[in-house]
């Protein structure tokens, strides 16, 4: 479904570009401002996800340390007091512990999200300097980017729910499925962004006026 939607958006964009190559639409900065808000929200979600997973790792390490202490008879009295004090803490850790095994997949999601934002910024900056695109076309490109980034933001919401699942009714199998589905969805968003960038760079190349112009476009976008 996401691929079909992306292809439809690209087809619409391409038609718009070819038919209104020199068109101008006022208020271009409004879309850029909207994208900045999305990126700020994405950064916040990533930070929350990183903090949550780091806390889970630290909690797991503390649990392992405390379990190790439980084998030392000479401090058994101290340990019993600790167990009473942290009874709720231990119960929570027993629920959280299975999630730590999924941490590598969560890190993959974070990495893909960071790649998506970085590649958007790089491509958007390059297209804005490309004289083959009008301001109207650049503005339309930003709407496509905004849609992709918002989709990735929804994906982050999904994985945050999964990471916090020990406080909900989600069981381990459901949580693991949610994380894996989110990881795949994030990769799809990244693939869409890269496809869009490649096709837009190819459009610039087709608009080159002569051999020298074509060579400059190839060098600019590293087209081989």
Describe this structure in words.
- This protein has 224 residues and is an all-alpha fold.
- Helices cover 83% and strands 0% of the residues.
- It contains eight helices and no strands.
- Helix 1 runs antiparallel to helix 6, helix 5 runs antiparallel to helix 6 and helix 6 packs antiparallel against helix 7.
- The protein is elongated and about 70 Å long.
Topology:
Blueprint lengths: L1 H18 L8 H42 L6 H10 L1 H14 L2 H26 L6 H29 L8 H35 L4 H11 L3
Helix pairs in contact: 1-6, 1-7, 2-4, 2-5, 2-6, 5-6, 5-7, 6-7, 7-8
Brief write-up:
The chain is mainly alpha-helical.
CATH level-two architecture = Up-down Bundle
Number of strands: 0
Task: Estimate the mean pLDDT confidence.
Answer: 74
Number of structural domains: 1
Radius of gyration: 24 Å
Report the sheet-strand fraction. Answer: under 5%
Q: The CATH topology, please?
A: I/LWEQ domain
Q: What count of helical segments does DSSP give?
A: 8
Task: Give the H and E element order.
Answer: HHHHHHHH
Proportion of helical residues: over 70%
**Largest pleated sheet:** none
- CATH class, named Mainly Alpha
**Amino-to-carboxy terminus distance:** 31 Å
Helix/strand/pairing category: mainly alpha
From the spread of the alpha carbons, the general shape counts as: elongated
Task: Enumerate the spans where pLDDT stays under 50 for 5 or more consecutive residues.
Answer: 17-30, 71-75
